[in-house]
UniProtKB/TrEMBL annotation:
Pfam families: F-box. Residues 40-76 form the F-box domain. InterPro entries: F-box-like_dom_sf (IPR036047), F-box_dom (IPR001810). PROSITE patterns: FBOX. PANTHER family: F-BOX DOMAIN-CONTAINING PROTEIN, OS07G0645701 PROTEIN. This is F-box domain-containing protein.
C-alpha cells in the first residue's frame, strides 16, 4: 500500500491503539513523511469506517493505487461518502499524460464509480475538477459525458451535493478573447444539459471565460443551492456591469480574482456573508451593494495602476481620489457599523499608520483589529512595479486624533511585520492601547520570509537579520516601551 496512507491515520485516534505508527505530518494535503507500519496485518484488521476515514484524507491517486494493490482495500473507494476527483492529479509533474488523456481517465473513473453495482454508499459530497480542452469538439464531448454521469448519479440518489472547479487547458496568457468566449459558450451548454447537477451544486469555480451578462446571471440563478462562488480571470462580452439580483440565492461566499468586470452589483443576495475582491483594472468602484443584510466580511486588495484614478471607500460601501482614507469616518460609520473584525494587510512599510484608525473609529463593534505591513525589497525597481502608481505617504500626527474617541469593544490587536526600530509601529500600537479600555492582548509577528528578498539589500530590514525581538530581555524592553504611559493590564505576545 502507498506510504501516504499511513499519515492519514494520525487523524483517526482509534487507529493508534491498533497499530504502532510513527507519523510526521507536514502542512498540505498529501505532503507526508513517516515511518511505515510495523504490522500491516494488524492494520488491515481495522474496521471499514476507520479505513474510510484514512482514505478521505489522501488524494485520489493514492486511493486508486491502494484499492488495486490490496484486496482488503479493494471495495473501500465504493463506500466513500466524500469523493474528490481532480484531473490535475493525473497530470502530475513526472507524468507525460496530456490533458486529453487525463480527461479520458477521469471520465472512465467516474463511469466505474457511479456505474458499479457494488457502490452501496451515498456520496454526500462530490468534488469534481476538470478542464476545458483546446480542441472544442473533444472538450464538448467530455463535458456531455461528465454531465450525463453526474446527473444520472444524482437522479439515482448516489450523489447528494456537488462542488465544481472548471479550469482551461490553455494558459490565460495564451488565451485570446475568442478562446474565452468559446469557454463560456461551452459552459452555458454544459449547464443547460446538466439540470440535476445544477440543483445540487454548492460550490463553483470558473476561470478564463468571457460570458454574455445574461448567460452568466442565468447560470448562477439555475444553481439554486450554490453557496460558494469563485470567479477567476472572468469578463463580460456585452456589458461592463454584472448585476446579481438573486432573492432566493443561498450564496454565502463570493470571491472575485482579476476579473475584467467594471462593476459587480450585488442588488439582492440575502444570505451573502463574506465577499472578497482582488486585483481590478478599472478606476470606478468594482462593487456596489443593494440588499445584503448578512454581510459580515469584506476583503479588498488591489495595487493602484498608473492609469487608475481610484475611488472613495464611501462610494463603495454606500453602494453607489485614491483608496486613501481621508477623514470621512462619520460617513463610513453607517457602512461599517456591524463589523466585528477589521484586518488591513499589505500596507507599505514606510507609510504612516495612524490613518488606519479612521476605519477603526468608524467601526464601533470591532473586537479584533489587525495591521500587517508590506516590506519586500524584491518589489522595488521592477518592471511590475512600473505598472503601478507612485506610492504616496500622507502625513498624520497623533494630535490629529480625537482624544474623546475610544474603541470600546476592541479586545485584540494583531500587528504583522513588527519592527521595534520603526517609530510608526510603536506610535500606532500605543495609540490603540490608550483608546481601547477592553483591550486584552497585543500580538506581534515578525515579517514573513521571502526567498526573492534574501539576496537583496533592504535599508529598512536587512536581508539577513530580523529586527524582531528574539530573547526575553529584548521582548521585555519592547513591552515596556509599548506600555509606557498606560496602566492597563494589556498582554504583549510575541509570535
Amino acid at each position: 500500500m502507498p506510504v501516504a496512507l499511513a499519515a492519514a491515520t494520525a487523524a483517526v485516534a482509534v487507529a493508534t491503539a491498533a497499530v504502532a505508527v510513527a507519523v510526521a505530518v507536514s502542512v498540505g494535503r498529501s505532503n507526508f513523511s513517516l515511518s511505515w507500519f510495523h504490522d500491516q496485518g494488524r492494520f488491515n484488521q481495522l474496521p471499514d469506517h476507520i479505513l474510510l476515514s484514512i482514505l478521505e484524507r489522501v488524494d485520489t491517486r493514492t486511493v486508486l493505487r491502494t484499492s488495486v494493490m490490496s484486496t482488503r482495500w479493494k471495495h473501500l473507494p465504493l463506500l466513500l461518502s466524500d469523493v474528490d476527483l481532480d484531473v490535475n492529479e493525473f497530470m502530475h509533474q513526472n507524468s507525460s499524460m496530456s490533458a486529453d488523456e487525463a480527461m479520458a481517465v477521469l471520465v472512465k473513473l467516474m463511469s466505474s464509480l457511479f456505474g458499479s453495482p457494488q457502490s452501496e454508499s451515498i456520496i454526500k459530497k462530490l468534488s469534481l475538477s476538470f478542464c476545458l480542452l483546446i480542441d472544442l469538439v473533444t472538450s464538448l464531448n467530455y463535458l456531455f459525458n461528465i454531465g450525463e454521469l453526474v446527473c444520472n448519479a444524482i437522479d439515482s440518489g448516489k450523489v447528494k451535493s456537488v462542488e465544481l472547479a472548471i479550469t482551461t487547458e490553455k494558459r490565460r496568457i495564451d488565451c485570446t478573447t475568442g478562446d474565452m468566449q468559446l469557454h463560456a459558450m461551452s459552459l452555458v451548454e454544459f449547464f443547460k444539459i446538466s439540470r440535476s447537477m445544477s440543483c445540487c451544486l454548492t460550490k463553483l469555480f470558473l476561470s478564463t471565460t468571457r460570458f454574455l451578462e445574461a448567460d452568466l446571471h442565468q447560470l448562477l440563478i439555475s444553481c439554486d443551492q450554490l453557496q460558494h462562488l469563485i470567479l477567476h480571470l472572468c469578463s463580460l462580452r456585452d456589458s461592463s456591469r454584472l448585476k446579481l439580483d438573486m432573492p432566493n440565492s443561498k450564496l454565502r461566499l463570493v470571491e472575485l480574482y482579476s476579473c475584467r468586470i467594471k462593476t459587480v452589483e450585488f442588488l439582492c443576495l440575502p444570505k451573502l456573508e463574506h465577499l472578497l475582491c482582488e486585483s481590478w483594472v478599472f478606476s470606478a468602484s468594482p462593487l456596489s451593494f443593494g440588499v445584503i443584510p448578512c454581510l459580515e466580511g469584506l476583503e479588498l486588495g488591489s495595487a493602484l495602476r498608473r492609469n487608475q484614478s481610484g475611488f472613495k471607500l464611501t462610494d463603495l460601501m454606500c453602494g453607489a481620489s485614491n483608496i486613501w482614507i481621508k477623514p470621512e469616518g462619520k460617513v463610513l460609520r453607517t457602512a461599517l457599523n456591524k463589523i466585528t473584525k477589521l484586518l488591513l494587510h499589505g500596507i507599505y512599510v514606510k507609510f504612516n499608520l495612524l490613518w488606519t484608525l479612521v476605519l477603526l473609529e468608524s467601526a464601533p463593534s470591532v473586537k479584533i483589529f489587525g495591521v500587517k505591513v508590506w516590506n519586500h525589497s524584491c518589489d522595488e525597481a521592477t518592471e511590475e512595479r512600473e505598472i503601478f502608481s507612485e506610492r504616496r505617504n500622507d502625513l498624520w500626527d497623533a494630535e490629529q486624533l480625537d482624544s474623546s474617541v475610544h474603541y470600546n469593544q476592541l479586545e485584540k490587536l494583531n500587528f504583522g511585520g513588527f519592527n521595534p526600530t520603526i517609530k510608526e509601529h510603536l506610535v500606532l500600537i500605543r495609540a490603540v492601547t490608550e483608546r481601547a479600555p477592553k483591550l486584552k492582548s497585543v500580538f506581534l509577528e515578525d515579517r514573513e520570509p521571502c526567498e526573492r528578498c534574501e539576496a537583496m539589500d533592504n535599508p529598512i530590514y536587512p536581508s539577513t537579520t530580523s529586527m524582531f525581538p528574539k530573547n526575553e530581555d529584548e521582548k521585555s524592553t519592547v513591552a515596556k516601551q509599548l506600555k509606557a504611559g498606560t496602566s492597563r493590564p494589556v498582554e504583549i505576545i510575541f509570535c
